[in-house]
Fold this sequence. Notes:
The protein has 125 residues and is of the alpha+beta class. It has helices at 2-11, 63-76, 108-124; strands spanning 16-21, 25-35, 42-45, 51-54, 83-87, 93-101. The protein has one domain (2-124): YggU-like (Conserved Hypothetical Protein Mth637, Chain: A, 2-Layer Sandwich), CATH 3.30.1200.10. Helix content is 33%, strand content 31%. A hairpin with a 5-residue loop joins strand 3 and strand 4 (51-54). The radius of gyration is 14 Å and the shape is globular.
Amino acid sequence: MIEDLIEILKSKKLLIEILEKSPIAFIISFNVWAKPGSKVEKIFISNDGILIIQTRSKPIDGEANQAIIEAIAGLMGISKSEVEIVRGDKSRLKKIKLKLVLTANKKESFYEKKISAILTQEALN
Length: 125
């Protein structure tokens, strides 16, 4: 079940690293290229397999980092506490750690729809 979701993530071009997995949850990491101070807020996957997040927030007092965490959490339908910037706090290239837990309400299909939404948004841009 978890393996299927991991394969979906990989098939959507996002380069991920699996840090931990169990039958009910998994923790992955991936790179994000931040574009703070953008005129338009946008999220898409580059040809290099990096998630690009454009945010209006400025890189002042951690505002852009907080906006990135909120964007990823909102995108995946998870709490902000399940998203962590593990490297690149002061850099545009960041390493993100993400915990996805399978529950009665958040099954594999839930996360599949969230991932598809990224690709739909990417196709529109």
